[in-house]
Amino acid sequence: MENELLRNEIEQLKEQLAWLRKQLYGPKSEKLSNIPLDAPLLPCFDFGDEVIAEEKKEQISYERKKGVKKDSCKLELPDNMEVRETIHELPEEKLIDEATGEELVEIGRESTDKLASCPAKYYIKRDTYVKYAVRNNPLSGVIQLPSADSVLKGSKFDESFMAEVVTAKLAYHLPFYRQQEMLQCFGIKIERQTLSSLFVNLGDKLEILYNEMKSLALECRYLYTDDTPVRMLEPGSGKTREARMWIYEAAHPDVPAYKVYDFSINRSYDHPFNFLKNFKGVIHGDAFGAYVKLDKDKDNASSPE
User: Fold this and answer.
1) What pTM was estimated for this model as a whole?
2) What is the pLDDT of residues 195-253, one digit of tens each?
3) How many other C-beta atoms are found inside a 10 Å radius of the C-beta of residue 137?
4) What element of type H or E holds 223?
5) Is the Cβ–Cβ distance between 84 and 111 less than 8 Å?
6) Are the C-beta atoms of 40 and 12 separated by less than 8 Å?
7) Which of 57, 118, 122, 147 sits at a 20 to 30 Å CA gap from 131?
8) Quick count: other Cβ atoms within 10 Å of Cβ 119?
9) Residue 33 contacts by C-beta under 8 Å, 6 or more apart in sequence?
10) What is the rounded distance in angstroms from the CA atom of residue 170 to the CA atom of residue 192?
């Protein structure tokens, strides 16, 4: 009888060993083993009646600041922005409490702010000049105020529209065909060539202002400069070539900086030489050879950095 029990125990241990080998080295399977739940374990898995002591738990309490829920929309507005307020009030007939018949009184106000926009508005600016004459004396002629001065005499465009075209072209990089399409949304039809001619004529008129800004910039002790390549449509060829746009920035203390641009068809040393020929000070720029040569020029006191 005892031998029979030992043989059964050995068979069970063999089955357990075979199952463990299969788990370690054989293909995995989700099938349950036919080992009885009350079968004895191998020595390494036999925990006996020992009870694993529970780990001691220590309760720790602390305080932390409750996070403030941040608005997902980050928006910064200037303090002097115009505010258009709409007051929403109950109509007069609703100012009586239905239950008691008592009159409602105002106890406070609650406001919500939203950023709004007003689309661009174009209008015709009409200047009408009243004509005068001496009664019963036609030979005295017609008397009226002279026409108001304009940047472009005889132009159909007001200076406000001119400024918008220039700002859109240079500050917002909107080509004239895009400006043309935007104006068409307001029913305004204008040729791109007209916008281009307006831009060129304004450039000629503003050259005196450009020269003044250039002179003020060159009077400063420190000058920052850099250049960048731009594509230029070569007249007559229908192809583009690489040209250069130079920027020179300088400022006197406590005043806005002057930013003066200069265009050239190439990156020849002659262009910065001609622009900086009257400059006496320190140049901040890259290691472009023209600036290095300026530093070594005995006739020029500029010192590139």
Assistant:
1) 0.62
2) 999 999 999 999 999 999 999 999 998 899 999 999 998 888 889 999 999 999 997 77
3) 8
4) strand 222-233
5) no
6) yes
7) 122
8) 6
9) 19
10) 16
